[in-house]
Amino acid sequence: IDRLVVQAPTIRDRVQSSLDSQQNSVVSIPAPTEEPNTHIATKQARQQLDLPTNFSLLLFFGGLRYDKGTDIFADAVQKIECPVAAVFAGSEVHFETNDIERWKENCPANVRLISRAQYIPEEDVYAYFSAADALVLPYRRRYGISGPMRRACMVGTPIIGSTDTDIGALIEQNNLG
């Protein structure tokens, strides 16, 4: 192999350190992400998606999967003391609407859980990122990149993620959240 292309500098460094070769044969090229067709203001995006305009809004976006930490997000928002809305937007996979309803029962009065546990049409995807004050990525996996993270970057939405992961390193190195 003359050249190996990966998506993140941290992956590049790990692969390069495992190679016998002293030359830099691993290159990092960020994953391409399509730009939004239009930029939409936060208030307008929230109105379009029927989301609250009077709370800070945290977004969990994508398939409601165990490895993406859907339940970690649900547990974490229960500890927030200020008024906040937490939106679960994505298809049911390992977690479903009834899980979100159960989590709602344990939330303090200042936390509002909003379930959009369904396929999100492409024309609404960027509106969710524009509506959010932050995207939360509580992934259990340490390695790899995130499609929602790339989309949040395209509209300037701050990102919260674990520091001991590839995603956390990208957030920190690029001042994304």
Distance between the termini: 36 Å
Which H/E pattern describes the elements?
EHEHEHEHEHEHEH
List how many beta strands DSSP finds: 7
Q: Could you tell me the mean pLDDT? A: 88
Largest sheet: 5 strands, parallel
Secondary structure class reads alpha/beta
Number of helices: 7
Q: Which percent range fits the helix content? A: 25-40%
Rg value: 18 Å
Explain this structure:
This protein has 177 residues and is α/β, with parallel strands linked by helices. The protein has helices at 9-18, 42-48, 70-77, 97-105, 122-131, 147-155, 166-173, and strands at 4-6, 26-28, 56-61, 84-90, 111-117, 134-137, 159-161. The chain is built from seven helices and seven strands, in the order βαβαβαβαβαβαβα. The strands form two sheets. It has a five-stranded parallel beta sheet, sandwiched between helices.
